[in-house]
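can u do me a favor
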């Protein structure tokens, strides 16, 4: 089994070899395995999806940006050297220099918040990248879970269609017996054959859809499982009220909020450009001249204060304020998107549950009716059309029930993903064989 390990801000993937028995319908680059579960499929997808490693690399960039900003408080050491002709003339005569070299040390003393604002800004950006990684993990888990549900859906639909073919063949045998006994005409058998052919076409249609769904899941996970375990019952928990959604725990909102904080530090950084920068500079330079060589030692306090830059600083401040306003609106947009997704998923889930209950009742009635019609057909109280009609009712009720059931699963997954509960509901946490970075 493959395992994915997150260490700090870097993703390190460790894989234990999976025996590869390639089948004709197995996508290239995937392994054929006997069975898998939803939790395992999501873990496989974490190992395979490139967007996760891309986001982890972005976190590494964010950390490097913080280190760069912090370097502003560190001493700046520079070597300098030059060669060529220069001449200095004063009251004591002329001095011709041919070369010079030396060392300069500069230490920032105070800059009215320029460096600190830069550090705070990049720190907030790095935090945003961490939350974006959390959101990426949730998106990959949701995408994989939905594909898993589609495979389960078409597996059940294919099985139900095959069972309906068997039921129609039972009706055909009953019609043959009555026809051989002279109790009915051959048209009963022909009608049944027509229905069987139509249902067999439906079986092939669902088989094709099943293979397509399997291929999509195999591409996401890197494995093609013969059997899929049942979906965890924890996903069926009734959704809470939309008013109770904790937006402070949702990565998408947290990422936008930290970017808003970063934008505020950007405003502070831009405004600090109005103020001077104070630093201490020391240096020692060696000069080689035509008649003597000497050392020039310096230590000074430097103050750099902008007087007029053509409105550049004011323009930077306005840009930063505009970026902050955009970041604020993105926080509201993130909350809006979460609420919309959760509300739609909750409504779909409620509707699917109602349709599934109605489908169960419809199926029970259709099955009872089928048993009665079969007995009455043997007594010549029902026609073959009645039997075929009730078999169609059984199929439609089964189809409605299966469709509603998996629509409910899909809605539950969408809701859990919107509220950042999907991975915990399927059993993925720090003690479940996968180590997710501490993003609190």
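np, heres the sequence
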């Amino acid at each position: 089994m493959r395992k994915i390990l997150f260490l700090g801000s870097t993703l390190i993937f460790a894989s234990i070899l999976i025996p590869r028995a390639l089948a004709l319908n197995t996508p290239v680059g995937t392994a054929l395995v006997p069975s898998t579960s939803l939790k395992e499929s999501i873990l496989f997808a974490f190992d395979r999806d490139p967007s996760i490693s891309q986001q982890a690399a972005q976190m590494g960039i964010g950390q490097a940006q913080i280190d760069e900003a912090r370097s502003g408080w560190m001493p700046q050491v520079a070597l300098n050297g030059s060669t060529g002709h220069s001449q200095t003339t004063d009251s004591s005569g002329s001095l011709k220099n041919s070369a010079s070299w030396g060392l300069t040390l500069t230490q920032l003393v105070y800059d009215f918040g320029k460096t600190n604002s830069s550090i705070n800004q990049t720190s907030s950006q790095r935090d945003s990248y961490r939350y974006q990684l959390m959101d990426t993990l949730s998106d990959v888990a949701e995408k994989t879970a939905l594909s898993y549900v589609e495979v389960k859906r078409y597996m059940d639909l294919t099985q139900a269609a095959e069972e309906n073919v068997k039921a129609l063949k039972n009706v055909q045998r009953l019609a043959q017996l009555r026809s051989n006994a002279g109790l009915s005409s051959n048209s009963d058998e022909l009608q049944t054959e027509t229905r069987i052919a139509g249902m067999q076409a439906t079986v092939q249609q669902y088989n094709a859809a099943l293979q397509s769904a399997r291929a999509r899941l195999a591409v996401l996970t890197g494995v093609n499982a013969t059997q899929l375990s049942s979906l965890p019952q924890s996903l069926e928990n009734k959704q809470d009220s939309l008013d109770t959604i904790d937006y402070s725990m949702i990565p998408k909102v947290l990422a936008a909020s930290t970017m808003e904080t970063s934008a505020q530090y950007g405003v502070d950084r831009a405004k600090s450009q109005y103020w001077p920068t104070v630093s201490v500079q020391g240096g020692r330079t060696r000069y080689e001249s035509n008649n003597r060589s000497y050392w020039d030692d310096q230590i000074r306090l430097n103050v750099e204060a902008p007087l007029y830059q053509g409105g550049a600083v004011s323009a930077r401040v306005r840009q930063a304020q505009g970026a902050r306003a955009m970041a604020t609106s993105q926080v509201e947009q993130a909350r809006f998107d979460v609420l919309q997704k959760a509300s739609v998923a909750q409504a779909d889930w409620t509707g699917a549950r109602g349709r599934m209950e109605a489908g169960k009742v419809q199926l029970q009635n259709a099955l009872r009716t089928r048993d009665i019609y079969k007995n009455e057909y043997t007594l010549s109280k029902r026609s073959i059309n009645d039997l075929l009609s009730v078999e169609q009712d059984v199929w439609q009720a089964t189809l409605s029930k299966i469709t509603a059931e998996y629509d409910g699963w899909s809605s539950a997954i969408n809701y859990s993903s919107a509220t950042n509960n999907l991975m915990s509901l399927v059993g993925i946490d720090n003690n479940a064989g996968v180590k997710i970075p501490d993003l609190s």
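Residues 114-180 form the longest helix (67 residues). hope that helps!!
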